[in-house]
């Protein structure tokens, strides 16, 4: 099987909390709610993928349910057919604020298929699907119909191996061969991509920009979704509110607190 998938349909979102910004604190003080500041918080939205699929170059095999514990392989083998990319799909219907550049997408590398490139630096890239009509793909996509894929060139050195007409570069990260752990991208391109969404669904493509050749290793990324406990998923999109959204969220919460305070009085 050259396509591995993981999928989850419930309990895929969590939240972590931070303190209010200075603007919201000023509002709190002006409302006479200084003691309530520590009770209010602004949410950062953390989202796990709805779908995460690894596809081998040229494969005509459809995706399947897969094993939640299987790693997803990524490799750039140049013109050889053994290259692999990962497609991700996120449901952001819970998002109700504008994303800031501090928003991030994190991955977990767990192992390598061999040690032929120890100490060498690999560069990975994440692209976003700008044609939102292509966001609603199924688990059984293949190399030939995966959204945004450059079917003809694949991993040719002359291009990024995605279709430039409907994708945009969101960020890159470097990995030294055989290093494991968490790697991520963030910045304005990712935030702009999130904010431009109109259908509550994001599609992203993870690929290697470094040609490792046939003897090079498959880089194994941890499962996209832990079906038993989605909160433990190893691919996480963390969306941070931009300052204006954060202040408005804080003001809304403080006004609610004041109403409750007045009602109690």
Give an overview in words.
The protein is of the alpha+beta class. It has one domain. It has helices at 22-30, 188-195, 243-264, and strands spanning 3-7, 13-18, 42-47, 51-56, 72-74, 84-91, 104-112, 121-129, 167-176, 181-186, 201-208, 219-221, 236-239. Strands 2, 3, 5, 7, 10, 12 and 13 form a seven-stranded antiparallel sheet that branches. It has a six-stranded antiparallel sheet with strand order 1-4-6-11-8-9. Helix 1 (22-30) packs parallel to helix 3 (243-264). The chain is globular. The model is unreliable at 1-42, 63-68 and 253-261 (pLDDT under 50).
Key traits:
globular, alpha+beta
Mean pLDDT: 74
Helix/sheet category: alpha+beta
Q: How large is the share of residues in beta strands?
A: 25-35%
Low-confidence residue ranges: 1-42, 63-68, 253-261
Q: Major sheet: size, sense and barrel closure?
A: 7 strands, antiparallel
Shape: globular
The tally of strands reads 13
Total discrete domains: 1
Share of helical residues: 10-25%
Number of DSSP helices?
3
Radius of gyration: 21 Å
What are the secondary-structure elements, in order, as H or E?
Answer: EEHEEEEEEEEHEEEH
Distance between the termini: 66 Å
């Amino acid at each position: 099987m050259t396509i591995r998938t993981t999928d989850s349909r419930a309990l895929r979102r969590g939240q972590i909390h931070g303190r209010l910004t200075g603007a919201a604190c000023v509002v709190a003080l002006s409302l006479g709610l200084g003691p309530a500041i520590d009770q209010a918080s602004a949410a950062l939205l953390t989202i796990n993928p709805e779908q995460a699929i690894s596809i081998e170059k040229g494969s005509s095999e459809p995706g399947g349910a897969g094993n939640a514990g299987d790693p997803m392989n990524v490799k750039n083998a140049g013109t050889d057919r053994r290259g692999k990319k990962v497609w991700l799909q996120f449901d952001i219907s819970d998002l109700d604020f504008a994303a800031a550049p501090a928003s991030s997408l994190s991955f977990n590398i767990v192992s390598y298929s061999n040690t032929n490139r120890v100490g060498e630096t690999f560069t990975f890239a994440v692209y976003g699907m700008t044609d939102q009509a292509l966001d609603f793909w199924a688990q059984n996509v293949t190399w030939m119909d995966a959204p945004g894929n450059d079917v003809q060139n694949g991993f040719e050195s002359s291009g990024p191996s995605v279709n430039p007409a409907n994708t945009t570069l969101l960020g890159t990260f470097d990995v030294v061969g055989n290093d494991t752990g968490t790697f991520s991208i963030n910045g304005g391109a990712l935030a702009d991509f999130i904010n431009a969404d109109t259908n509550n669904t994001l599609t992203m493509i993870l690929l290697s920009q470094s040609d490792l050749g046939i003897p090079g290793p498959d880089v194994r990324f941890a499962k996209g979704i832990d079906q038993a406990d989605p909160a433990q998923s190893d691919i996480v999109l963390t969306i941070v509110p931009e300052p204006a959204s954060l202040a408005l969220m804080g003001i809304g919460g403080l006004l609610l607190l004041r109403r409750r305070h007045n009602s109690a009085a």
